[in-house]
Amino acid sequence: MQVQINTNTKNKSNCDGQECPSHTVTVLPSASVALAKNNPNLKDRIVSAAPVEDDSSFELKLRPQRLNEFIGQAKVKENLAVAIEAARSRGEALDHVLLYGPPGLGKTTLATIIANELAVSFQQTSGPTLQIKGDLTAILTNLRDRQVLFIDEVHRLQPALEEILYSALEDYKLDIMIGQGPSARTHTMDVKPFTFIGATTPRFGLLLRLEFYSNEDLRVIVERSADIMGVSIDRPGALEIASRSRGTPRIANRLLRRVRDYAQVRAGGNIDQPTAQAALSMLEVDRHGFDEIDRKLLLTIIEKYQGGPVGVGTLAAVLAEEADAIEEIYEPFLIQIGFLNRTPRGRIATQLAYEHFGITPNRRQSSLF
Ligand code: ADP
After folding, report:
1. Residues with Cβ < 8 Å from 92, sequence gap 6 or more?
2. Cα separation of 225 and 222, whole Å?
3. Most C-beta atoms within 10 A of its C-beta, which of 62, 113, 118, 324?
């Protein structure tokens, strides 16, 4: 489902010109989070970017609270810092923000940071949670002045609710139907000026896309988290964990936790590079952060389909996974690190993928690269 923005809206028309009223830090193919939550294979994956149950209390502790604690994503931070300072000095609500990026890259974290930096209250919900109009109108009518309302997976909001939300976003007004049938009346209510932060496919406003993190940024995140957890880790140890975290802070933090357990039991509590390597190989997370499913996906293309191209539907059937899960959860990282190409005719394993598995491509396959 897409977020529909009425072409007559103020936002849209302003955005068509030079100036755009809304800040759009991008959010995610959030369907992937829902997908992961419903898919037992994904839930069990240690390198899954989607939150798993025991992540939540732990993530709360590690979550940066202020913008200067948020590591990496320099462009996003700069844009936000300016917008936040401007809104604060004018005493106004910050423009609406859209965050776009794969799960685990820090969208929820950024949303809470924005509220903290603005010193306003923060409320969080998600598209799939809001089922009936009353759920959303209750939230909107109870908003506090200038507060932040974060709606994750906003593209999964039902169309009727989308309409209500967008009318509140555009002019801080809410139309409520009172009664039914011929006697029904529409009553327009004011909503307090607020900042909406949503996760969606980009449609309007300034777009700030969260990218996968570099190993260096992830290393800093791991060291910071280790510090909060009171775990001793050296730089090579932190880098080892970082480089196997698929560019994703959530995975880095999860791996750190598991390596800490290993270090405590087998290595006197200190995490250095050999300890991290031993722990991660025990957990079967290889040097690229691949797990069994990634390996199976690439090897299927290489061995069963001579390197591709192979359609995503076929891959899904062979791997017994949903096509959406392949597209939104497994592939983005494999594409990002150059192991997989998406072509109109299907997926192709690249030379790097062959090298990773120590397989020599034949002539026909080499000609694809
Ligand atoms: P999303 O909402 O995009 O799925 P979260 O904001 O929940 O991701 O981030 C997952 C975890 O990763 C957070 O608990 C936080 O500890 C960590 N994290 C994400 N981004 C950063 C960052 N830039 N710096 C430090 N930690 C981060």
Report:
1. 146, 193
2. 5
3. 113
Which of these is catalytic: 24, 26, 95, 152? 152
pLDDT score for 166: 87
Residue with tokens 């809410």: 174
In terms of DSSP H, where are the helices of 39-158?
A: 40-43, 55-62, 74-90, 107-118, 133-141
Measured in Å, residue 25 CA sits from the centre of ligand 1 at 14
Digit-coded pLDDT (tens) for 14-39: 333 333 334 444 333 333 444 444 55
CA 195 to centroid of ligand 1, rounded, Å: 20
> How far is ligand 1, taken at its centre, from the CA of residue 97, in Å?
17
What is the phi/psi pair of residue 95, to 5°? -55, 160
Beta strands 173-178 and 23-25, pairing class? unpaired
The CB density around residue 190, as the number of other CB atoms within 10 Å, is 11
Per-residue CA distances from 285 to 141, 197, 326 (Å): 47, 34, 19
pLDDT tens digits, one per residue of 147-165: 999 999 888 899 999 989 9
141 is catalytic: no
